[in-house]
Design goal:
InterPro entries: ClpP/crotonase-like_dom_sf (IPR029045), ECH_dom (IPR045004), HIBYL-CoA-H (IPR032259). It catalyses: 3-hydroxy-2-methylpropanoyl-CoA + H2O = 3-hydroxy-2-methylpropanoate + CoA + H(+). This is 3-hydroxyisobutyryl-CoA hydrolase. It is built from 16 helices and nine strands. Helix 1 packs parallel to helix 3, helix 2 packs across helix 15 and helix 10 runs antiparallel to helix 11. The strands form two sheets. It has a six-stranded mixed β-sheet with strand order 1-2-3-5-7-9. By secondary structure, it is an alpha/beta fold.
Length: 344
């Protein structure tokens, strides 16, 4: 194991701690491989009854992948990032079918790749500090790590809204949208985690869980469902502008800041994911899309603007929705040159 993932067995509990607190526990390729190795080792170990994933530090579980590394690698062909994504997506799928209870503590910031290692688990816990998001369109990318499946299965058009705008979810929103199962106050987490060695996991969690907090998105369903049911990003924007709802106006402003290409690809990916019969199918699609994004101008430019230079002024190309045609979008769903990802 490397020094960025702490793994130990504590009685019948296998504990995995993502340990890059200064980087908000963002994932490197080595961390992905270390988590996978631990899960593989424990899957057949009868002494391990339950696995728990947490993040080091006070700020969050995981802020996602190491996107600065993606930026640098994409500029030289993206081979390293493609390898990272293959292993990451396979890990996401393994978590979804892990043979033992997999408890993910989504305390604090849980975004992008952090969602991938938590929201596919069998026991997903949020706290009052949780901020959950798939913010990929902010950086010229498309929701991945199985996010297209999660978003496509959220109530109504909430997932479409979240995926396009890259908006964050409150703890209540995460529960409403199917990204989490239980709400536990952060102050009670140490007790809960200590008690997992013994009684059935469901009994322990029930002892500490409290009623779900309010979900702000629930109050926005009417305009979100009406506007985002449209078949194109252009029509979604037109409906948002015409709705007269202040929150809808804010959404148009957020969409105007996103990559026009990635908005259209994201909408297509989410619509296609609705027909998928498994997480594996969505991850295989996401691999195609992510590989195409690595070769597109907007990913490097988006990360530059948000993370490298931090000027928050990306120069998208093409710059408008009208310039992104159906053929351009369809190309993102073609097999990558180095072959598809196959899971299972």
């Amino acid at each position: 194991m490397g020094d960025e993932v702490r793994v130990r067995r504590d009685g019948g509990v296998g504990r995995i701690v993502l340990d890059r607190p200064r980087a908000l526990n963002s994932l490197t390729h080595g961390m992905i491989l270390d988590v996978r190795a631990a899960l593989d080792a424990w899957a057949g170990d009868d002494a391990v009854r339950v696995v728990v994933l947490t993040g080091a530090g006070e700020r969050g579980l995981c802020a996602g992948g190491d996107i600065r590394a993606f930026h640098d690698d994409a500029k030289t062909g993206g081979a390293g990032t493609r390898a990272f994504l293959r292993d990451e997506y396979r890990l996401n799928e393994l978590i979804s079918r892990y043979p033992k209870p997999y408890v993910a503590v989504m305390d604090g910031i849980t975004m992008g790749g952090g969602v991938g290692v938590s929201a596919h688990g069998s026991v997903r816990i949020v706290t009052e500090r949780s901020v959950v998001a798939l913010p990929e369109t902010r950086i010229g990318l498309v929701p991945d790590v199985g996010g297209s499946r999660l978003l496509s299965r959220a109530p109504g058009e909430l997932g479409t809204h979240l995926g396009l705008t890259a908006s964050s979810m409150t703890p209540g929103d995460a529960l409403l949208c199917g990204f989490a199962d239980h709400f536990v106050p952060s102050a009670r987490l140490p007790e809960l985690l200590a008690d997992l060695d013994g009684p059935p996991v469901a009994e322990v969690v029930a002892r500490y869980a409290e009623p779900a907090p309010a979900a702000p998105l629930a109050e926005q369903r009417e305009w979100i469902d009406a506007c985002y049911a449209a078949d194109s990003v252009e029509e979604i924007v037109a409906r948002l502008r015409a709705s007269g709802v202040p929150e809808a106006k804010q959404a148009t402003e957020e969409l105007a800041e996103r990559s026009p290409t990635m908005l259209k690809v994201t909408l297509s990916a989410l619509r296609r994911a609705r027909a998928h019969g498994s997480l594996a199918q969505s991850l295989e699609q996401e691999y195609r899309v992510s590989c195409a994004a690595l070769a597109h101008h907007d990913l490097v430019e988006g990360i530059r603007a948000q993370v490298v230079d931090k000027d928050r002024d990306p120069r998208w190309s093409p710059a408008t929705l009208a310039e992104v045609d159906e053929r351009t979008v369809a190309a993102f769903f073609e097999p990558p040159a180095d072959g598809d990802l196959r899971i299972g």
